[in-house]
Structures are given as structure tokens and as C-alpha cells.
Backbone:
């Protein structure tokens, strides 16, 4: 018989309030502060917009982070309600209890709490407050406290921060949420700092006017799709605090021109960079120039569709900057050369740190994989290995299987459909579904016999 834990008194109190919206809103004036976080969590999950709005208006703590409350869809409506309800000073609706909220954080960073615990040693009570912008709460407050006359600057009591992730494309003018953010900032007469931490830009040249409203020093994650390298460089000159940079479909006229030199110079100044993703960015014979300037403790490197050649791989295998990678994605670069020594050395170098390896669509053959397998099996931290869409045979797949079985950390393998399943390799219409089903069934039996039911082997037919 299933035994279900009985609800706690707190659960019953929260549920009771949610079922009676007007009562809940009225009760916000009196309920103890400890009830706010569980009530907010339940109201957010249940999409009680009116209660959420009232809670933001009377939030009794310094900060409010929605990060722990991940939702898959229609989150924008809830964000909109919360931004609209943000009380700028002087308080618009004095009927609500005096709000203490100074930082509203709508970013999706996992691992943060709904409100920060009280720490007396930091200058602001919020662990996620902006430290980069001149308009940040922390900097405005320190300016004000050092200034003898308050009338010269903003009063610290009026400064607030709104932390968001933004995705801009050429249709940003029709983006209702972005328009709301800008109107709120305008309404605040300079007292609200719009702090964009994660910024995605598609079609950079058309988003210029939107970017003029942002302080790019706040951005830590930047993703740019479709732009010229010259325009990317001018953006990077302002976004100087990046942890993660992702560039895709970037056009670069020459590796000897000023734009590439300036790009390298910007990269070299990114001391905090942990993740670099260059996709559909042709770097044939020039990967060396990029890797030489990135910080030595890079964690994640994605280089799909970069046209990498033997020399690039050779450099990759000797480059100290990539010796501690946790993730390496070099998919969609053809590795048809016979000498796979550089790749072997690369795996040897990464055997203590690599957790995620993707080498899909690389034209890897049985011969190459059989040479790489011993080095691969020494990557003891590996959790995900993806090598789908490479022309290998069933005996080779079995052999790789044997190599991977002792790797206890490895849980996900995305394997290539063996060549015998195709009439003509990788022509989708020539795929024999029955043969593929047999391969899947064999692998399932092999996993069971090897007592590795914790491992998941999948493939794609697309
Ligand atoms: Zn906080
Ligand atoms: Zn900021």
C-alpha cells in the first residue's frame, strides 16, 4: 500500500490562502515573513497572477529570485505581472505594506534561493546583486554614502535592480516584454537599473537601437548568431565581463585583417571566460590563433562546423589552454586523415577532466576509432559520449561497447547507426528499420549482460 506523507500545517495554510485570493491578498499585510517564500513558490507554480502581483508589491525582503522555480512554458506572462507590480519609489500604492524589495531577479540561474540568506559581511544583502555597472545599486549606494549631500546624487533608498535574461532579434520592437522593461526603466527616472545577465542576439545589425538601452558590462553570457566579425568586436569591447561567449554564423573576410586581430585582442582580455562556443565559424588552419589567447582554465569548448584540419587538431593536442576541459564538442569537422595521433594525445591530456565529448558527423571510420578507443576508455570522468553519424560497422560498435563498459561514470552514449543498416550510407531513405531495431535489441541485451542497466545507449535516425 502506498503511504503518502500527510500535508504539514504550513502546506494547509498555503493551500488555504491560494484558494481564497482576496483573503490571501488581504492577509499579506499581516502574515509572518516566513510564510512569504512558500506562498510565493506555490502561487508561482499555480499561476496565481493576482497573488503574485500583490506579493511583489509587499515583499518583505531585500531580494526576490525566481531562479529556483523553473517552468517550461508561458513564463513570460508571470514575469510581466511581476515587473508591472514592481514598486518604484515613492511607493505607488501605499495601501500595501511598505515594500523592502530592491532586487527582482527573473534570470534562470539554478542553485540560488528565492531570497538570499542574511549575511552581514557583504555590502548588499543579496549575493547576486550587480557588481559591474556604474548604475548598480551597490555602486550608487557607495557613491551616495561617500557624498555629503544627497541632493547631488540619487538617494540610496530609491535605487533598485531588475535582473533579466534577454533574447533579441530583428523583431525586438514587437517584443512586448522588452517594451515593458524599457517603460519601467523610463518611469523610474533613473532609479531602476535594468541588469541583463544573459543576452542572446540574432541579427546584430538590426538590434543596435535595442542595445543602446543596456549596459553590456552586466552581461556574463553572450550568444550572437549571424553577424560580421567587425560588429561582434565592437560588441565585445563593451561586454567585458563574459563567462560564456557563443558565436555562430559569423563572417570573417580575412584572418590577416584588422577585424580578426581585434577579435583576438578582445578574447585575450576575457580573464573570466569559462565557455567558448564557435559554430559555423570557419577557422581552418587558424584555430591556433584563437586558442593561444583564451584563458588557461577554460571548461567548455564547442567547435562544430569550424572546418578544422589536421594542423588544427595537432595544435589542439598540444595546447595548454584546453588541458582541463570538461566539455569538448568537435562535431561536424571531417577527420578522415590516417594519422590520428593528435586526437589520441588530446584524449590522453583530457582523461582526468573530460565529462562530455561530442564527435558526431566527423567521418570517423573503424580504423580511426579502434586507435582512439584505448585513450577514450581512460577518460574516467566521462558522463556523456556522443559519436553518432560516423561510418562504422557493427563489429566496431561491439568493440567500442567493450571499451566503454568499465567506465562507471559514463551514463549516456549516442551511437552511430552501423553502415550495414543502410543501402547507401547515411541516405535516410535507404535505412533498413528492421536492421536498426535488431541493433538496438542486441545493445539492450549486451547492456543487461554487462550489468550496466544504468547506462543509456540511444541513436538518431534523422
Ligand atoms: Zn538575493
Ligand atoms: Zn548590472
Residues:
Amino acid at each position: 500500500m502506498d503511504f503518502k506523507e500527510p500535508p504539514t500545517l504550513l502546506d494547509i495554510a498555503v493551500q488555504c490562502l491560494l484558494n481564497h485570493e482576496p483573503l490571501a491578498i488581504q492577509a499579506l499585510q499581516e502574515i509572518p515573513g516566513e510564510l512569504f517564500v512558500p506562498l510565493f513558490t506555490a502561487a508561482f507554480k499555480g499561476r496565481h497572477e493576482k497573488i503574485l502581483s500583490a506579493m511583489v508589491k509587499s515583499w518583505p525582503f531585500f531580494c526576490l529570485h525566481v531562479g529556483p522555480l523553473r517552468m517550461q512554458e508561458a513564463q513570460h506572462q508571470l514575469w510581466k505581472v511581476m515587473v508591472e507590480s514592481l514598486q518604484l519609489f515613492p511607493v505607488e500604492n501605499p495601501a500595501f505594506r511598505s515594500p523592502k524589495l530592491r532586487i527582482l531577479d527573473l534570470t534562470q540561474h539554478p542553485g540560488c534561493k528565492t531570497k538570499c540568506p542574511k549575511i552581514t559581511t557583504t555590502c548588499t544583502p543579496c549575493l547576486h546583486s550587480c557588481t559591474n555597472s556604474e548604475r548598480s545599486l551597490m555602486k550608487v549606494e557607495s557613491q551616495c554614502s561617500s557624498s555629503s549631500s544627497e541632493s547631488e546624487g540619487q538617494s540610496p533608498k530609491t535605487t533598485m535592480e531588475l535582473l533579466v535574461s534577454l533574447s533579441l532579434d530583428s523583431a525586438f520592437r514587437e517584443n512586448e516584454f522588452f517594451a515593458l522593461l524599457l517603460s519601467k526603466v523610463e518611469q523610474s527616472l533613473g532609479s531602476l537599473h535594468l541588469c541583463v545577465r544573459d543576452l542572446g542576439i540574432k541579427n546584430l545589425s538590426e538590434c543596435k537601437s535595442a542595445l543602446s538601452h543596456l549596459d553590456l558590462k552586466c552581461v556574463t553570457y553572450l550568444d550572437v548568431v549571424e553577424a560580421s566579425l567587425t560588429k561582434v568586436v565592437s560588441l565585445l569591447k563593451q561586454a567585458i565581463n563574459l563567462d560564456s561567449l557563443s558565436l555562430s554564423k559569423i563572417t570573417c573576410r580575412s584572418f590577416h585583417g584588422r577585424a580578426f586581430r581585434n577579435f583576438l585582442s578582445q578574447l585575450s582580455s576575457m580573464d573570466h571566460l569559462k565557455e567558448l562556443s564557435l559554430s559555423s565559424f570557419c577557422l581552418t588552419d587558424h584555430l591556433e590563433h584563437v586558442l593561444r589567447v583564451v584563458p588557461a582554465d577554460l571548461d567548455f569548448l564547442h567547435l562544430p562546423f569550424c572546418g578544422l584540419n589536421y594542423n588544427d587538431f595537432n595544435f589542439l593536442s598540444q595546447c595548454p589552454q584546453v588541458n582541463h576541459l570538461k566539455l569538448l564538442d568537435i562535431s561536424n569537422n571531417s577527420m578522415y586523415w590516417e594519422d590520428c595521433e593528435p586526437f589520441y594525445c588530446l584524449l590522453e591530456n583530457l582523461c582526468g577532466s573530460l565529462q562530455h565529448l561530442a564527435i558526431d558527423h566527423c567521418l570517423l571510420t573503424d580504423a580511426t576509432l579502434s586507435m582512439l578507443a584505448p585513450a577514450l576508455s581512460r577518460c574516467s570522468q566521462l558522463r556523456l559520449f556522443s559519436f553518432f553519424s560516423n561510418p562504422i560497422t557493427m563489429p566496431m560498435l561491439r568493440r567500442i561497447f567493450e571499451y566503454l563498459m568499465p567506465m562507471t561514470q559514463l551514463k549516456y552514449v549516442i551511437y552511430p547507426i552501423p553502415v550495414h543498416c543502410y543501402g547507401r550510407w547515411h541516405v535516410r531513405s535507404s535505412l533498413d528499420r528492421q536492421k536498426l531495431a535488431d541493433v538496438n535489441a542486441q545493445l539492450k541485451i549486451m547492456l543487461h549482460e554487462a550489468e550496466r542497466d544504468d547506462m543509456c545507449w540511444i541513436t538518431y535516425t534523422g
